[in-house]
Amino acid sequence: MRNKLARSRSNRKVAGVLGGLSHTIGISATILRVIFIIALFPTGFFPLVIVYALLTFVLPNEEDQIVE
Question: pTM here?
Answer without folding.
Answer: 0.79
